[in-house]
Structure formats: C-alpha cells, structure tokens
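Field reference: sequence -> structure
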Amino acid sequence: MLKRDQFLLGSFCSNCSNGMSITKVPERWVNSWENNLSLGTMLDEAGIDFMLPVARWVGTPGEEIDFHGSVLETITWATGLLALTKNIHVISTVHTAINHPVVLAKQMATMSQIGKGRVGLNIVAGWHRPEYEALGLVLPEDHETRYGYAQEWFHVVKKLWQEEDYFDWEGRYFNLKRVKSDPHPIADIPIINAAGSKEGREFATENADFLFTPAMDLARSKEEIADLKNQASGKGRSVDVLTFSHVICRPTEEEALEYRDYVVKTNADWLAVENVINMQFANAQSFPHDLLNLMRDRFALGHGGFPLVGTPEQVADGITSLAEAGFKGTTLSFIDYNAEFPYFRDHVLPILEERGLRSNRELSNSNVM
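Structure field:
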C-alpha cells in the first residue's frame, strides 16, 4: 500500500499539456513522452513517492490555448514509466464509464507485474460533460447513479482480482458471463478517489485508501479531514487524505512573486480559466462552491491547487502547514516540471528531511505506498 511513515509527495498532471497551469507563457509544460520519462527518472532518483496523471479526452478551449487538449493516455503512460523506473509508484487514472472493469482488472494486474507492485488506481466516477458528449455517452444528472455505477464497477474489479475461477455477474449495470482475471495483481493496489458530493464521499470512504481534496482554507481542511476519517472509521476502515499544490520556488520571495504575477496576471488565459471554473460549477462538487469564485488566480496558477510560492524555506513552511492540517501528502505541479523540480529537490527536500516530514532513506521496490 502507498502508506509510508512520512509525508507523501507526488507529481500531478505531467501527462497533460500545460500541466496544471492555465497560462500562455511560452515555457509552459510540454507533455511529450520524452519529457515525462525525464521527469519520472528524476523523481524516482529523488525518492518522490508517486506520479499521478489526469485522464482527459477533450480539452477546454481558451483565447490561445486548448487547456489539456493534448493528454497521454494514463494506462499506457503509467505502464511505460513502471517499466523504466525502479522505486516510484505510478498511478493510473481511469473513468468508470469509459473503462470496462474486466479489461481494467487485467490491465492493472499486468502493470502490477511490470512495476513489481508499484501501481495504483485513481477512480473517476465521471463529471466532465464534454467528455461524455464527445464519446456519445450521457452524464447522469444525479450523483446517486454516478456512484451507484462506480460502486458496482469496483465490486466487479475487486472480485476479478480475488477469484481464482470463472464467475458470472448479474447486477444493475453489468451482466457478465464466465469472466476471470488471470493473472492477479502481485500486491494490493492502493485506491485513490476525489469526491466532493455526499454520495462521492460515501464511495471514497467505503473503497479508497486515499481521498483527494483541495486545500483552500487550512482551518476548514482540518475539520474536513477529521470528518472524513471519522466517516471511514464508522465503516471499520481508515483513509488518508491527499491534496494538490503548485510550486514556484526561487532563491528570494521577490523572484517567486514576480514569476507568479508573470504567469497569472500577465499571461493567464482567462477565457480558459472561466470555462474550467464554469465546468466545475456545473458538474462537479470537488471544490467548495462557496469558495470557487475566489479562486480565479489559483486556477490560473495551478488549477486551484494550494500555492507553494516563495523561497525554499517558505515552500517548506507551506508543506509543513499541510501536514499540520492533517493531510497525508500533496502532489506537486510546476510551470515546467523538468526545469523547476531540480531546485525543489536540492533546496526544499533537505528542509523537509530536517523537520522529520521526509526520510532520506532509499525507497525499496516493495509494496510500500
């Protein structure tokens, strides 16, 4: 399982054009396979815990950019990285409405062998209406249907990972005859889910090892995390909570703030920002709606992620504040991951190690996420 005795760090969205930043700056992230492999190698060598992709099938248009218009598909992306890294866990993000559970179960089992157990599964029950329309699907209006389907989908996946013999399945959404997944995963696969609705959080606390949620107000996050852990505990389960952050780390605070303003105030694609926010309002509850309109700058910078902007000490302070709020870990995004991660590695990670949030011990290839 991806539950280490330290604060977890991972990358987020490197498989997507622009990463997490809705900006027009010319140095914005290019999501080529070469760039992803270079990043994966650096993260692996630095002891970063995991890489998490976004599954997207259509982009969000803006004035100049098509935000997430180019995306490396997450199963093949993760499989390639697992084959070419040694220690880092690589998560695959899948939509329940798009990925058939029998196919997915075998894909994940294969990836588990390739990565020696370093695979994880991020389950998306569906919310992005343009993707449903692009694929000729209908997005259910009610969350009960979305998560009812996701729950049966995951029951099928788990049974495929556990059963040795062929079996039939007759349910509300799936009618399967003589199915089996051989091989099985070689180790337990950690499950991640991001959910904001009541139904979504029932699903997450019932099934996930990690619940993924934004950190907009840390006092509010502290209460939210306690509630989620209590909800899971009432079901005889334990969950950890992850969030996502965007990093601009420079030698001085002035340099970091100047670069933030350059990315956001000077070069944000505000039409794309508005389109992304409107889509969140209309179809998802992952972000607290009473705060979403206050988040335009954060969306431009890092899709609403917690801003880690400043000197290495200030960035480390921000990560420390997330840990003190109760988060188990955070993902990291950058304008250009490959250009900026080395400075974070060399100057922020040592501070986190000194504070006891991170260990400098080498990751093993065992199933330790």
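Note: The chain has one domain: 8-354.
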